[in-house]
Structures are given as structure tokens and as C-alpha cells.
Amino acid sequence: MPYRILMIAPTSFFSDYGCHVRILEEARVLQRHGHAVRIVTYYKGRDLPSLDIVRTRPTPWHADYEVGSSRHKIAFDVLLSWTSLRAALRFKPDIVHAHLHEGALIGSVLGAISRAPLVFDYQGSLTGEMVDHHFLNPDGPWHALVRWLERRIDHRPRAILTSSHAALPLLRDEFGVDPERIIPIPDCVDTTFFRPRAESDAVEVAAIKSYLGVPADRSVVVYLGLLAPYQGTHLLIEAARQVVEQRPGTHFLIMGYPGTPQYRAMAEALGLSDHTTFVGKTLYDDAPRYLRLGDVAAAPKLSETEANGKVLNYMATGLPTVAFDTPVNREYMRDYGFYARPGDAASLAGQVLRALDDAPARARAARGLRARAESAFSWDDAARRITAVYDAVRMRRRSERTRALRALSFEPPRGGWDVG
What we know:
With 420 residues, the protein is of the alpha/beta class. The protein is built from 16 helices and 13 strands. A 7-stranded parallel beta sheet has the order 3-2-1-4-5-6-7, sandwiched between helices. It has a 6-stranded parallel beta sheet with strand order 10-9-8-11-12-13, with helices on both faces. Helix 8 crosses helix 13 (345-357) and helix 15 (379-393) runs antiparallel to helix 16. The model is unreliable at 416-420 (pLDDT under 50).
């Protein structure tokens, strides 16, 4: 049956990166499956056609704000709580679908008021993310308090949707969540929107290369995502120096924000001015065309508690992908990835060189990753599983809910969960 879904997104939706893409694609596919979706989010962000978005008022003292953890988010979340309450009273949701831990905390209150069950879309550990962003000292006095709060939030929803299967042991073992309430809904990708480069793309690819100043005769390594230490941007640039030293006919096309001037200066200091192009913020709608410039893709994200959705975009584009060897990346790519030792720039460089120089391995990876994106990471399959979760959490008897969620929690997605 169709549901009225109130999504809570404590971020500046839509901003062309990371969790925003998951929120966008979930909302779109749920609407295609007949559900009504209203998204409550922060003041800033880009409105998108066909999406019902409700925004907070800006804070009078800080109308602009940074990506990631910030003290200002406390005020934003107070405003988001009030706006979400008003939206819930008007919209009368059947389901509260909350993204990120702040959203789940707000959603637990709204669910109690509206009597709509809470589903938590979990994309990584709150404590882990704050440590990754250098907002929280793991040895400081606040770490234990934040971890306690995270545990309390994790126990509030009737079901938790995880963006990777690798999150299950973290929630179960470290935060004591009943595994029967944990439903893996891995990040997915639109394989018609992101597709491999074809012969018919040659003119467009040449034109974009010319526009960006990428030499036509060079092999291109692409990166698309946030530029930040926890994303491994500094390691990518150091790896680029080592790659260019051994293979001068290589160019690195780095797309994303913030901190573009900082990382461009780092590249210049390493003598990479003629071998790197920093595009800055790239709209999601333009991402497929820009990715098709690449021969190899890089995903040097360091966090082991968060998903790495850019990898799926690379896979759908048929790009051999170099990434650090983490459970999430193994879950996505299995044995089709080029895996470097986590945090090791030299290992990252070595895998980029291998991907560029080993044509048979590169071709095998391209075919395997594209096929895996098509078979195992379909948004329509995800929508059917999410709807089944909605059906389960709305069951009146707890025993019925438990049986229904248990069946879903142990049902593998297409393509399996093998992360070995």
C-alpha cells in the first residue's frame, strides 16, 4: 500500500555529494513506487523538481555554514525540530524516515507525537564521523557522552536501514542493537544515468577535456566527491605525485569541494600543476559526463564506518576503481577492485599504476564492476525492500513485527553480501 513518508534530513539538502545522493534517490524511487514523500531539511540547499521539500528558517547570526560537523548544527537542529513538528502535524505521516543520527533523534519525538513508526537510515557511526571530521577528540572528555547518546539513538527506531552490510556488526557488537532490527539497504546507483563511455561520446569527451584543460593524449584518473582529510584527498595528491613521476602521461581530474584552493596549492607545491585539474563543485546532473572522461577512478576515503557511494557511480560508469581495502569497498566491488593498504599513499599510487598499465586487468574490472552495479545495486530493488520494512514496522503486534523484520534482516540483496 502507498504510504505518506516524512523524511528528516539534517543537512543542507541537496548539495551534490554523499548522503544527499542517497536521500535524493530514495525519495525519487519511493515516489515512483506510489508513495508520497515530504523532506524536511536545513535552510540552504538546492531545490529539485518533483520533490516536496520543506526548509527551516536560517539562523540570524549564521545563514551560511560548513559541510560536516559544526557547533552551529545545534541551532540548525533546533530549528529543524520545530519545522519537522509543524510538517508532521500538517502532513500526517504514516512513516517517519530519518536520515543521520540527528534526524533519528528528532524522529523519535515526532514518531511518539504522530504515532508514526520511526525508520532510521543509518549511514555511519555518529561518534566515528565526528572523530573523522576532527570535531571530537577520541581521548577527550566528551567522547564517552557522545557515544552514550549514539547508543540511545540507535535503540529508538523500530528498524534501522544500513547503507552497507558492514555496518551490522558495528551496531550489534558496539552499540547492542538487536540484529533483527537491522536491515541492510546498500547504497544503489541509477545505471541508466551513470553509464560507460561509448564511441558516440567521443566528441563530447574531447570537448569537455578541452574546456577543462586536460591534455587529449593523457590517461585520466578521476575523483568525484568531497575534498577533506577523512576522504583521503591529501593521500590522493601525494599518490598523484608518485604516479606522475613514473608515468608522466597521466592526468588527475579532481572534482569536488570544499577546500579546493588548499588542495590545489598542495598539488602545485608537489610540482603537479600541469598534471592536475581541480574542477570545484560539480553538479550531480553533470557527474556522469565528467566521469566518462576517466580511464581509472580513485576513492581514497579513510573512514571505515561510513558508506562510500562514489564507488557505485564509478562502477556504473565502468571505471576500474582504486580504493583502500575496507569492508565497505569489498562489499561493493568484491574482487573487481584495485585495493591499496588503508592510509598508504605509496600503495595507492602502486594500485593506480597497476590499473593504468595492466590492460587485461583494467578491462576485466570495468566489465565486472558494471555488471555488479546492474545486478546488485538497483534502486528499484531497494524500494521494494524499504516498502517491506514500512509494512513490517506498521504491524500492530510486536511479535508480528519481529517475525517480518527477521525475515528481511536475513534476506541478502541480489549479488550477495560476500565481503571477502
